[in-house]
Amino acid sequence: MARTKSRGRAKRRKLKNAEGNAGEKGKKEEENRAAVSTGKCYEDGRTFVIPETYDTIQLLLRITELPTILAWALILTTLYVFARTTERGTQMLCPPGTVAMDPVYVLYVALFWRVCYNVVLGATLHWQSKTRFITKYVESLRRQRSPSFSRKIISRILHDAIDGHEDPLQELPAPFCAWILHTSFVNIILPNDVIAFSLTAFSYGIRNGFDIFVEVERNGLHLSNIPETLKITVRIITYIVGVLLCYFSLWSKRNAHSVIGKYCWFWGDFFFQQQLELRFDGVFELFPHPMYTAGYGWMYGVSIMVGTPAIACLSIVSHALQIGFLEFVEQPHIDKTYGAEILAEEGLRGTKQSNINIFRNFNTFRANDWSLVIIQILLAAVFALLAFLSRMETQEPLVQPYMYVFLALGSRLLGSMIIGAVLKLQERNNYWSRQYSSATDAFREWTRFQVSLLPPFLLLPRTFELI
Question: What is the pTM (predicted TM-score) of this model?
Answer without folding.
Answer: 0.70
